[in-house]
Design brief:
Length: 112
């Protein structure tokens, strides 16, 4: 199982591979295999055979998973790639202590 601080709906930038440099939103994270599916990245063509349910055969384009180490979070403030750190923050209204993600580049707390 892979430990990661990325979450679903985070905006990430692809660091390597055919889709290098593109940004997209995380649609799914598989922590067991260490893979993520990013919107609009690593598009593959799937040939679908005609069946009684679907009489029209088709070629379907969909996103395939890529390795989680090939993506980096995009900072919401600066719109540049950044690393993720953790910070303990005390909520002033309730007094509860929470662990929050923060951008190493801008120092701003990332809310998702």
């Amino acid at each position: 199982m892979i430990k990661t601080r990325l979450k679903k709906n985070d905006t990430v930038k692809v660091l390597s591979g055919n889709s290098k440099g593109t940004t997209g939103k995380i649609l799914f994270i598989d922590k067991q295999k260490g893979r993520v599916i990013v919107e609009g990245v690593n598009i593959v063509h799937k040939h679908q055979k005609a069946t009684q349910k679907n009489p029209q055969a088709a070629i379907i384009k969909r996103e395939a998973p890529i390795n989680i180490t090939n993506v980096s979070l995009v900072c919401p403030k600066t719109s540049k790639q950044t690393r993720i750190g953790m910070e303990i923050v005390k909520d002033p209204t309730t007094g509860k202590v929470k662990r929050m993600r923060l951008s190493k580049k801008s120092g701003e707390i990332i809310i998702s």
